[in-house]
Amino acid sequence: MQEVYDFLKESETYFLATMEGDQPRVRPFGTVDIFEGKLYIQTGKSKNVSKQMLHNPKIEICAINGERWIRIQANAIEDDRCEARQHMLDVYPDLQSMYSADDNNTQVLYLKDAIATIYSFTEEPKVIKF
Question: What is the Cα–Cα distance from 69 to 7, expressed in whole angstroms?
Fold first, then answer.
């Protein structure tokens, strides 16, 4: 999991895919955190992406870093504890101008049953499960 976290941090921006009915939706994200041994992402409950993940927690993430790229499939599970939200906001202090741990909007989700595959044109794919 640490290798996946490092890859996403170094990439800075990754793309998160959800489903809305039968239509895939993809958007750029940048938040990633490890808290209590789980990999987390963050959004706002008022956003469509939040509603999509709550309706169907199956997501995919894709990012590129130099000549390597990663694809992650997982279930995004909401962690509604204030401690989890605050940890994310402590890691991303710039978000504190838009979010707070107790604003009823900040949402953090951890990746469950994740399968990450790191690809390149010169090496065999590396599969990481967590």
Answer: 9
3-state secondary structure of 96: helix
Q: From CA 26, how far away is CA 73, in angstroms rounded?
A: 14
Judged by DSSP in three states, 11 sits in helix
**Residue 14: predicted pLDDT:** 98
Chain-centre distance for alpha carbon 86: 16
Q: Is the pTM of this model over 0.85?
A: yes
Q: What is the pLDDT of residues 24-56, one digit of tens each?
A: 999 999 999 999 999 999 999 999 999 999 999
41-52: b or e for each residue (b if 16 or more CB lie within 10 Å)? Answer: bbbeeeeebbeb
3-class state of residue 129 by DSSP: strand
The pLDDT value recorded for residue 99 is 98
Classify 85 in phi/psi space as left (phi over 0), alpha (psi -120 to 50) or beta: alpha
Choose among 79, 74, 77: nearest CA to 106: 79
Chain centre distance of CA 97: 20
Count CB atoms within 10 A of the CB of residue 71. Answer: 16
**Locate tokens 């990663």: which residue?**
70
